[in-house]
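RECORD TYPE: protein structure
NAME: Tetratricopeptide repeat protein
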Amino acid sequence: MKIKDKQVLVFYAEKQVILYNESIDEVKKRIESELKENENDIKLLSIYAQILHQYDNDYILALKYIKKILQLNKKDVDARLELIIIMLQYFVGNTDDCQNILNECLKIDDNYWRTHFIQIKYYDFLLKSNSFMMKEIKLLLNRFPNNPWITVYYWQIAGDEDELSLQDVNMELIENSEYLDFEMLRRIAYYFQRVDKNNLAEQLQKQSLKLNPKSFVNLNNYAQLLRDSFNNNKDCIYYCQKSLEYNPRYVMAMLNLAFTYQFLEKYEISNKLIKNLIEIQNTKSIFFEGLIQNYINLEQTDKAMLYCQKANKKFPNNYEINVMYSYELIQHQIYTEGIETDFEYVEIVLFNNLDLFINQPNYDSDYYYIINHMNYIYGDNDADYNIIEI
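PREDICTED:
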């Protein structure tokens, strides 16, 4: 597959797609000039707001233009959708309000494809399960079957689930598309990485960055590609840091950087980054998992236990958190003299939550590890902790 390297800029205004085949600097100058002639033109205001937050990373000024659009037309859907994107990427305001805004957009026009597309992005932000995401994107694809944005998003999610082989991908739909802007190329690159076409993925990521070199999302995606597919941790760190220069609150780059340092066994640096993450957004269990694992690796058991307890209160039904906590309780009992551990919690994890956890991919090995070590602590003849068949 060969995607031509061409200048493509895509914007959305008044439920229309606006396409330019010029450089971003040329388009920005033109829009600024036209706004001087007509400062209340919603189409021009919409394009300019998107230039500001997507290409200049100036979301504060972009918000002023979005506010003006909504003052001119309170039912403008694209302005509301741009507001959601800014809220999610920069953690402006309460991100829980995004669903309310989406619901308002659907009431205004349920048939506008882009509202449903941003809904999927919001689910992605919430870290909904891959199975849930696949169900939702398939429903959307059935409703808008020839939409290139939804099609490529489907590729991305299906790539995570190993549900879409290269033979099943309609390459012509993309190769001949006129909408291959930086974001579209980024998503296609992600899919090709998932199917181990890493050189092609890198080519597309570079094309994407050429179109928007300041895109903190693209910089982070490229960093992850370099680490995961090319074992290039040095450049991964460089591009993560570059991403954070453009948006210091971009949690995905911070998390990517933290896990890279964890892989390099620089656990203290990793922990500093994860603690910053938790300050920005404390609703993701994966942040706590990373922090706990770092303290385990540093053999700082008390801190590992402390964050296990905090995480367990916050995410009582999270499998990884529950297993980590059980492990640490057991390690405390085995290796720390004078420690008496109440195993009522471990019993709850193992037996009361079977329906919740039994389908987890590592359940069998985790289960037998915990049971065997409890037998070790209490003696082989303790009937309460005999291994049972699942």
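COMMENT: Strands lie at 9-13, 16-20.
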